[in-house]
Design goal:
Elements (H helix, E strand, L loop, with lengths): L3 E8 L11 E8 L5 H11 L3 E3 L6 E3 L3 E8 L4 E6 L3 E7 L4 H10 L24 E2 L2 E2 L4 E8 L4 E6 L11 H4 L4 E11 L11 H7 L7 H15 L7 E5 L5 E3 H10 L5 E3 L5 E4 L1 H7 L6 E2 L2 E3 L6 E4 L5 H19 L8 E3 L6
Parallel strand pairs: 2-5, 3-5, 4-20
Antiparallel strand pairs: 1-2, 6-7, 7-12, 8-9, 10-11, 10-12, 13-19, 14-16, 15-16, 17-18, 18-19
This protein binds flavin-adenine dinucleotide and uridine-diphosphate-2(N-acetylglucosaminyl) butyric acid.
Uridine-diphosphate-2(N-acetylglucosaminyl) butyric acid (EPU) binds next to strand 13 and helix 7.
Length: 347
Amino acid sequence: MSGYQLAENVSLAGRNTFHVAARAAMMADVTRSEALSELFDFAMLREGPVMVLGEGSNLLFAADFPGVVVCLTMAKVHIVEDDGSHALVRAEAGLSWNDLVTWTLGRGLCGLENTALIPGTVGASPIQNIGAYGVEVGEFIETVEAFDRGTGQIKRVAHADCEFAYRDSRFKADLDQWVITAVEFRLPRQRELKLDYAGVREELAAMGVDTPRASHVAEAISRIRTRKLPNPALLGNAGSFFKNPVLPAAQADALKETHPLLPVFPSTSSELRKVSAAWLIEKAGWKGFREGDAGIAAQHALVLVNHGNATGAQLLSLAHRVADSVQETFGVGLEPEPRLIGARWQR
Ligand code: FAD
Ligand code: EPU
């Protein structure tokens, strides 16, 4: 039993949420992490590139992939230890993120409720330290288990070495080195719920909930997300296409003075502020824009959308036009959040 299965010349159109047409020269479905060492030896023989693909909800194929696309199908989850106040949960990479959120809430564990309904897999969650509605998952990650291509071994990377930041981590900085095979989360049974993000309390009130539990928060956030973001099953997209720019405080304050309605949020240090990319894009006139099948969602200005048959290159070209126009109008540079395959952002 090798633990992986290979197929050649595979269509990726159904494996990315932009629904962009692209092909992989080879695809490997991996069922056991112990098989990765042999698989990478095999891939080296082919001398082509290798990439890991989860649910394809945070990448844009601007070209076919000429090497091996690795998909991890292991999806088991269990409680490793439980002291009554906290439990350590181990989830394998192929599990869907929202299934993990539901599984933990069902066992009375909280912490992940604000991240309900984020698409994608557990294995991808540490890559950009996924986050929503005031919570980033890095806060709960105790250990990331990952195959290190450099040594051919599976390593346990402790929280302190993961370098989690806003939409960033050590793993994102070196995507070719790591294949994340499992993640361990330390989750509390009780905690103060995070309800401060705009709209969350209002949604709970609309649900008729006075004393919310974590599962109510997950439901409220799922309802907000369903209204606010286009459903990739109906309209191809990868969520926010740009990160919210983090600017020196002086630049953000000057922008706010000229544009008092610009949403500005605190960042990791008092010298930095995060500003709303959606607001800048909307004010630059792009919300609801469409050219051919490439567009900017009418629902949310930060979401690049494929109305049908846009190519990755067409979507990327529109993203560049949007970023150029925001740069000209506001003097602010935008950086894409999803990984670009077969293209670079900097021209
Ligand atoms: P993929 O898109 O398949 O891969 C993303 C990156 O991770 C690639 O570089 C890939 O090579 C790498 N990767 C994937 N799995 C592994 C692994 N096991 N080991 C090593 N590398 C790996 N993100 C947020 O943070 N917050 C949100 O609120 C949010 N909302 C979204 C809403 C929508 C509608 C959509 C479509 C996306 C949203 N996203 C959000 C982005 C996306 O859901 C996350 O980035 C998610 O973690 C991607 O998971 P994936 O399995 O689809 O990864
Ligand atoms: N806004 C506009 N125009 C729009 C949409 C929003 O001006 O078309 C303004 C809103 O008025 C609001 C502000 O932008 O004041 C922020 O909007 P929102 O709450 O929708 O959040 P966001 O900054 O656009 C970020 C994340 C999302 C995450 C939400 C909720 C990034 C790049 N995006 O979006 O994550 O779900 O906050 O926490 O940080 C993703 O990463 O793919 C993603 C969807």
